[in-house]
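Tokenise the fold.
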Amino acid sequence: MIAAKSSQPMPGEPYRLMSYFVFLTVIGAGILLGLNWKKLGKPEWQARTILLSIFLPITMVALAIGWIVLLLPYPVLPTQFVMSIPMLAFGANVGFVWGLARLQNGAYKKFKKEGYEALQTYEYHVDDALFFGGIVMLVCALFGVFIVPML
């Protein structure tokens, strides 16, 4: 059903692109997902996603490092308190990439089922992706703060 058009490149599978964060970091996976917007018929979202994919992880790493450096003079603080911001930063990075992949996945499924024309009318559920990314962020943070110190 999907006739390859010479003018329209085939979109990448979002969860596969997301999985590249293992090798390319969150920045690389986010950039790949950002480049995928053009193939999914949303070229106006491409630049914003790429910029966010670069600045969000850098900001989160800086926040985590700053938090740890700030607390170095206080070695008696509970591990959970010290780990809270770094784990939240980690969760924000993972939640961002996973939420972005989830946002693109619906359009990708529709493309696979109905072809390129379906992408023109596909309605993206940004609120659902943001909620999902937020839940991933909180789960990562809670796991890192309360479970990891017990291991």
Summary: The chain is about 75% helix and 0% strand. The radius of gyration is 18 Å. The mean pLDDT is 92.
